[in-house]
Design the sequence.
């Protein structure tokens, strides 16, 4: 049983109301990536906050704050060029933006019972 | 504080796909506050809840004052199959005797992170998000709150959550 099940929702979670676009770049060779440096390079390129949220040996997932997906697609070459400057990433002609999607808000009022260790979107989708 | 251990987690760190830039930052902040502290940084633990629990338990048995877990604090694989597996917070939920926690969600319903702190045995255990700026900010807030009152876990947790949120507002 979740030890904190008696918590009120206000105590259990907070919502960050930030607009962001999720970006995935594939076709990379990643080894020893300095993700902090990558965030700084892309923050300079896009003039916006960037967070690396997932890395594999061949791809990087990032959150880009405050920029629409169209703008990201238009600047695709510049983004790949900036990525290529990061320590631990090698780009090739196969490197590309696989997707750039603005996040879709969900209604937190519609989320059913709080389940420990799950994701709210997962619970929301179950309820949909 | 006499002794602390930093436990980075994540297959991508363990496999050297991503450099661990968080641990040196946490160590620097700790040393700034407690110059005489003995600090261990152990090899990264894989994203397996059992492995994380076992590593934490090993250090609890040694009665270290502070255990800092890094990474694995979000919705991760539960949200997207391409994201890492996040088990740190579930491991802590299992281990801690009276945990204090708060979750941060994006408006798309993705749990960005769940920050927990609590005690097991003589050890205070906290976790940090993996992204450098969030880990840096959260641990800075921890240091301040801990210095103010190391027994007030709720205040420590609230300060850490506020520090992470401040990175986006």
Sequence:
């Amino acid at each position: 049983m979740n030890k904190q099940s008696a918590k009120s929702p206000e105590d259990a979670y907070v919502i960050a109301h930030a607009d962001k676009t999720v970006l995935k770049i594939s076709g990379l060779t990643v080894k020893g990536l300095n993700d902090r440096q990558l965030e700084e390079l892309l923050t300079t390129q896009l003039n916006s906050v960037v967070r690396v949220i997932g890395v594999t040996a061949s791809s990087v997932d990032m959150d880009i704050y405050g920029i629409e997906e169209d703008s990201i697609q238009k600047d695709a070459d510049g983004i790949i060029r900036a990525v290529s400057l990061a320590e631990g990433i090698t780009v090739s002609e196969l490197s590309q933006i696989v997707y750039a999607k603005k996040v879709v808000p969900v209604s937190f009022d519609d989320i059913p019972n709080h389940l420990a260790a799950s994701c709210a979107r997962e619970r929301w989708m179950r309820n949909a | 504080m006499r002794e602390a251990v930093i436990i980075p987690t994540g297959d991508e760190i363990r496999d050297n796909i991503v450099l661990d830039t968080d641990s040196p930052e946490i160590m620097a902040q700790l040393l700034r506050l407690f110059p005489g502290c003995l600090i261990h940084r152990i090899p990264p633990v894989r994203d397996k809840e059992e492995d994380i629990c076992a590593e934490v338990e090993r250090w609890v048995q040694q009665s270290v004052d502070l255990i800092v877990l890094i990474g694995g604090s979000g919705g991760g694989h539960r949200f997207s199959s391409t994201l890492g597996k996040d088990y740190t917070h579930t491991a802590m939920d299992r281990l801690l005797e009276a945990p204090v926690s708060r979750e941060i969600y994006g408006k798309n319903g993705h749990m960005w992170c769940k920050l927990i702190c609590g005690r097991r045995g003589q050890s205070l255990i906290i976790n940090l998000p993996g992204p450098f700026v969030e880990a840096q900010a959260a641990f800075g807030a921890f240091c301040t709150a801990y210095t103010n009152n190391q027994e007030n876990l709720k205040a420590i947790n609230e300060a850490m959550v506020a520090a992470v949120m401040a990175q986006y507002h």
Observations:
- Strands of chain A lie at 13-16, 20-26, 29-30, 50-55, 59-65, 89-90, 96-102.
- Confidence is low (pLDDT under 50) at residues 1-6, 122-128 of chain A.
